[in-house]
Design brief:
The chain is globular. About 35% of the residues are buried. The N and C termini lie far apart (about 95 Å). The chain has a 3-stranded antiparallel β-sheet. Helices cover about 60% and strands about 5% of the residues.
Length: about 450
């Protein structure tokens, strides 16, 4: 009897171990909604009209065509990636140039604000910067002629090979170009200055609306914030006619949630993350699936990004109200749960690779806040409201001039002479962020 019981126990234990191993090796199927989420649409913009290549080739060697150079850069990166994959070599960071002889911005760091003071107080320095960067300034005008700016969609497994533009020289040249715009206004050429600034707003609005990647959208928001700052400084230091004030209002239509949303970018981010995770941990045999389940990981990435995409699509007030209720569900922190034990490496990689996106979403809403502040500045200048009357003036304004999160009046910082608004805490910090416009 004892040997029979022992045999039965051993058989049951064997069945259990086989079932456990089968379950541990089992990878859930890719969910239909996830497959749809990962099916990134193809780019429909003709290559010759796509300003992405002009951005990619902005730092081309002197005398080169930036669009042609960008196309060559992209194709070279894709060809090298194909060669690597044929040799089964892991992808590395991609350069945005096929040549080391790039044309870089010449000069010291430019101011981040108070552009008018720099323009009037450092006129000779500005002249030298303009002369030293004349070709880059001409390229910037070429860049702004493109109205379609779309990163080309690449095949599954290739997204890590796609080159990303180097935005630093573009941002430096934008600042220099905007100070030249302020100089035009200072010299009385206000309509010309407004035309240049309007072109800048149209271009970066197009980049923000059409860009697929988080970095492209964040750069576009930063450039648009700079446009708003320069426009405010023009309002402060220029006598504007009624038609010019009307032109400024037409240049700054309200930012709709779909204009600043990161929802579509999160689909591409999920696509890139999926490629990055499996490129960093290649699977060599069936036993690897004990620790990393490809489909389960992709399902988890997509579910997380879908939840974030829903948040990104909300208006500022709904986003502000909902964020405290769901913030713990929008990150991939590792917690001891059955799915972590089932797919440990997938859970750990997700916790490292998937950031907290709410701070990025806030940047889009802050753009609308800054636009409202510029509109307040324009209205106050029109009505002759001085600094002493600004606090009362802010309290009297209607909904279209209020904090987009709370619908409360904007605040006045008398010490800094600035319109201010509390925003969300900065990423990784506890203190409250503020949006401000110094008048």
């Amino acid at each position: 009897m004892r040997w029979q019981r022992t045999t039965i126990v051993r058989c049951l234990l064997g069945v259990y171990l086989v079932a456990f191993a089968a379950l541990a090796l089992y990878d859930t199927p890719l969910q239909p909604a996830v497959a749809e989420f990962f099916s990134v649409p193809s780019t429909t913009v003709p290559e010759a009209e796509n300003g992405y290549f002009a951005l990619l080739g902005f730092g081309a060697p002197a005398g080169a065509d930036i669009h042609a150079f960008g196309r060559k850069t992209f194709q070279t990166a894709m060809d090298k990636a194909a060669q690597r994959r044929s040799r089964n070599v892991q992808a590395g960071p991609q350069s945005d140039s096929v040549s080391d002889a790039k044309l870089n911005f010449k000069g010291k760091d430019l101011p981040k604000d108070s552009f008018y003071l720099f323009m009037t107080g450092s006129s000779k320095s500005l002249d030298r910067l303009v002369e030293d960067n004349r070709e880059l300034l001409a390229r910037y005008q070429t860049l702004k002629r493109y109205r379609r700016i779309v990163e080309p969609a690449v095949k599954d497994g290739q997204s890590q090979d796609q080159p990303i533009p180097t935005f630093m020289p573009v941002r430096s040249i934008q600042t220099l170009a905007l100070m030249s715009v302020l100089r035009q206004a200072h010299q009385g050429r206000v309509d010309e200055a407004l035309g240049q600034l309007g072109d800048d707003l149209v271009y970066w609005r197009a980049v923000l609306q059409q860009g697929h990647t988080l970095i492209t959208k964040l750069i576009a928001i930063a450039c648009l914030q700079r446009d708003h700052q320069v426009l405010s400084e023009m309002i402060a230091h220029t006598d504007l006619s009624g038609s010019q004030r009307a032109r400024i209002r037409a240049m700054l239509p309200p930012w709709r949630p779909e204009d600043t949303s990161f929802s579509e970018a999160l689909r591409y981010e999920a696509f890139y993350l999926s490629d990055a995770l499996f490129a960093s941990v290649p699977q060599r045999g069936p036993l690897d699936r004990l620790f990393l389940k490809p489909n389960a990981t992709r399902n988890a990435i997509a579910r997380m990004q879908m939840a974030n995409a829903d948040m990104a699509a909300l208006s500022a007030d709904r986003f502000y109200k909902k964020l405290p209720l769901v913030s713990g569900q929008l990150s991939a922190a590792v917690r001891l749960k059955p799915d972590v034990l089932y797919n440990p490496i997938g859970a750990i990689l997700m916790s490292i690779a998937v950031p907290q996106y709410s701070g990025y979403f806030a940047r889009g809403h802050e753009l609308e806040a800054k636009r409202r502040m510029v509109m307040i500045h324009l209205l106050a200048k029109e009505k002759g409201i001085g600094f002493d009357g600004m606090e009362t003036f802010l309290q009297q304004l209607g909904t279209e001039y209020r904090n987009p999160y709370t619908n409360q009046p904007m605040q006045w910082d008398a010490k800094k002479k600035a319109i201010v608004m509390d925003s969300l805490p900065a990423k990784g910090k506890e203190e409250q962020r503020r949006v401000e416009l110094v008048l």
